[in-house]
Fold:
Amino acid sequence: MRYKLGICVFVGVLTGADVAAQQRPATPLPGSVFQSPEARAMQSDDTSNPAMLWVEKGRSLWTKSDGATGKSCASCHGDLQTVMKGVAARYPLVDQKSKTLMNIEGRINNCRTDHQQAPPLPYESNELLSLTSAITYQSRGDVRLVGIDGAAEPFFTQGRALFEQRQGQLNLACVQCHDGQVGRKLRGDTVSQGQTHGWPAYRLEWQSMGSLHRRIRSCSIGVRAEVLPYGAPSYLALELYLAWRGGSLPMESPGVRR
Ligand code: HEC
Ligand code: HEC
Structure:
């Protein structure tokens, strides 16, 4: 699929009506469009995408026995490539039992603690990044469809408010960059719509795979706002809102980013 960058207009002061009109970009564009041709080429070819190392590792972890139960993910779920098809495209979602908003990382750790009796894997550990990458890879090309009604509604509303809220010493809201400044250069990057469909992604600057929350934390640092812990409820709410905001964009994780 090929996309062209549209003309971008900087919205200086966002009134309520402007914000309402801009809740979802008229044409959602995948993050890869804003990357260099080299990064895009790496992403689209599995043999040159460094993120595939994490996907491979995740596949082997899937079949590894762990925890007090000695069970592997596969012993309950079966073949990763079959059973996890399209799953990540439905996340984050509200977990029926705990009534909390869960992303893929949260779901994996919930299975570890509840079903394997194993300790949760820390965010950004190689293991959690690998399992998340392997599961998300099975949704590549799938359209994201997250629930925003019912139990999910309060989280969605919170996520939207956070996206529009000015923060940090620079007093900037996510929407001001990822809507108002799309296509502009900022410290060597081209500002994108802030879509999440390429995450987790391999970031050349990190020389590693990283989670979506790590990416959002970088944006918080950029505007000198408070950096929240990985898995923070606010980041989860933003994750839900952003997943919805992507509209019919297909999943493109594992992405390659500058
Ligand atoms: C000062 C401008 C600025 C602000 C404010 C900002 N970001 Fe970003 N953000 C960037 C830049 C620059 C990048 C890297 C280039 C790109 O992909 O847009 C980025 C990347 C991202 C990406 C990754 C997009 C991709 O496809 O790889 C996401 C998601 C994101 N930001 C979310 C947020 C959220 C959520 C907030 C508010 C908490 C926020 N950003 C605030 C500038 C900003
Ligand atoms: C003892 C069985 C068992 C084991 C072991 C197990 N799970 Fe699960 N998993 C479940 C059940 C049951 C559910 C449904 C949600 C629930 O009740 O926790 C689930 C749900 C999931 C989901 C969400 C599926 C969806 O459609 O929303 C993912 C992803 C997942 N597990 C990944 C893993 C991973 C990764 C591992 C290994 C680290 C693992 N599971 C280990 C039983 C297990």
